[in-house]
Amino acid sequence: MMKKTTAVRRCVWAGDDPLMRAYHDEEWGVPERDSRALWESLMLDGFQAGLSWMTILRKREAFRKAFRNFDPKKVARMGEADIARLLQNERIIRSRAKIESTIHGARIYVAMEDAGEDFATWIWKMAGNKPIQNHGPVPAKTPLSEEISAALKKRGFKFVGPVIVYAWMQACGIVNDHSPDCFRRNVSR
């Protein structure tokens, strides 16, 4: 008797690329509560502006190396010589505005930390401290992403418009937008 096999159902966007599938299966939508990891993800989503996530995903390890493993304290100390070096690095997105935004974002993160504020606690509090299960069509932005975007901008972060913030919320599991038939939809968090 032959064993019946069932195909794993994923969100359509996961496609056939092994890197994208692994990202979908292991990371996207998993609630992230580590402040540094949340900040790294937000910075990478800023680099994505105008580009595909696959572009960023393929360059993620190069970004980590270039930005000192996204250690906010180390990135906050980067200066003009580092910016010039990064602008020559063909392995990352060489946008002065995005590079400067990441360094500036690190300085904001460190200032928050020095003031006793935890980045993850601050973000998750705005989201009600638990993942939001989306039951409708996947929007480009929501009132909550607009609220978080405004709060981030008020702090001085850049490349944090409501559409970028919503994509980041999905990636970090603040909102669950896995399709209803996706095997990750109801996985215990």
Q: Briefly, what is this?
A:
By secondary structure, this protein is mainly α. It has helices at 18-26, 35-48, 53-66, 72-76, 80-87, 96-114, 119-126, 143-155, 162-171, and strands spanning 132-133, 175-176. It has a single domain, classed as Endonuclease III, domain 1 (Orthogonal Bundle), CATH 1.10.340.
Which CATH class is shown?
Mainly Alpha
Main beta-sheet strand count, sense and barrel state: 2 strands, parallel
Count every beta strand, where a strand is a DSSP E run of 2 or more residues: 2
Shape: globular
Query: What would you give as the CATH superfamily?
Result: Hypothetical protein, domain 2
Structural class by SSE content: mainly alpha
Structural description of this entry:
The protein is mostly helical. It has one domain (31-176): Hypothetical protein, domain 2 (Endonuclease III, domain 1). 53% of the residues lie in helices and 2% in strands. It has nine helices and two strands. The protein has helices spanning 18-26, 35-48, 53-66, 72-76, 80-87, 96-114, 119-126, 143-155, 162-171; strands at 132-133, 175-176. The chain has a two-stranded parallel ribbon. Helix 2 (35-48) packs across helix 3, helix 2 (35-48) packs across helix 9 and helix 8 packs across helix 9. The mean pLDDT is 95.
